[in-house]
Amino acid sequence: MVYFDKHPRSTPLRMAVFASGEGSNMENIVRYCRHVDRRAEVALVVCNRAEAGAVGRAQSLGVDCEVISRSLLNDKAGMEALLEAHRVDAIVLAGFLLMIPEFLISRYRGRILNIHPSLLPRHGGKGMYGRHVHEAVVAAGDTVTGITVHMVSEACDEGRILFQAAVDVDAADTPADVERKIHALEAAHYPRVIMDTFFE
Ligand code: GRF
User: Fold this and answer.
1) Cβ–ligand 1 contact at 175 (below 6 Å)
2) Minimal CA–CA distance to 115: which of 71, 161, 82?
3) CB of 117 closer than 8 Å to CB of 147
4) Which atom of ligand 1 is nearest to the CA of 52?
5) 17 CA distance to ligand 1 middle (Å)
6) Calpha distance 135→111 (Å, rounded)
7) Known catalytic membership, residue 150
8) What pLDDT, in 10s, does the model give residues 103-142?
9) What is the pLDDT of residues 18-74, one digit of tens each?
């Protein structure tokens, strides 16, 4: 498999962040690129829900944001035109809940990352997203959970693992407690892991 040829340092890498929910990861990535590491920038936020927190956050941050339908996501010419218009070099998924079509995976092969809120392969696959993952962790009595950053491949949650970090689950933790711990881990690691993947 051909992975991303590391981005040259002369111009910032232009990333599109795809988000469906609150957009806290998206905001962390934007801020990281502005204040910590300017080798990349968020050129575009793509969201499939007009009412998602990610849309408002993108507007507050002054980042271009496109709300897309499922049919546009699956329209090769339409998506290519959108990403080309914003000169997108790489795609970062951050709580994006629709399946990424194969034409985007192959076009951005090695340049499309996802974060999953568990230690894959545990609690991965279809239907395992957001709060469902944390509920499964608590229901299974797991004493440890964590985050996984991975390349996106055609098989859901099965691309090459780039990074994992773990956190303890206490016996009294609710799914909401686990979610808070996971968000803290994501904030601490995801932006840096993105940079390490594209530049080191
Ligand atoms: C994150 O926990 C992410 O790992 C998962 O969905 C959540 C999205 O949170 N896939 P946010 O929208 O970034 O706040």
Assistant:
1) no
2) 161
3) yes
4) 12
5) 12
6) 31
7) no
8) 999 999 999 999 999 999 999 988 899 899 999 999 999 9
9) 999 999 999 999 999 999 999 999 999 999 999 999 999 999 999 999 999 999 999
- How far is CA 22 from each of CA 5, 68, 144, 153, 199, rounded to the nearest angstrom? 31, 16, 25, 24, 27
Q: In terms of Cα–Cα distance, which of 95, 79, 89 is closest to 109? A: 89
93 CB within 6 A, ligand 1:
no
DSSP 147-200: EEEEE--SSTT-SPEEEEEEEE--TT--HHHHHHHHHHHHHHHHHHHHHHHHH-
| Omega within 30 of 0 (cis) for the link into 8 | no
From 7, 35, 86, 116, the catalytic residue: 116
Round to whole Å and give the CA distance between 17 and 96: 9
To 5 degrees, how large is the angle CA 152–CA 134–CA 136? Answer: 95
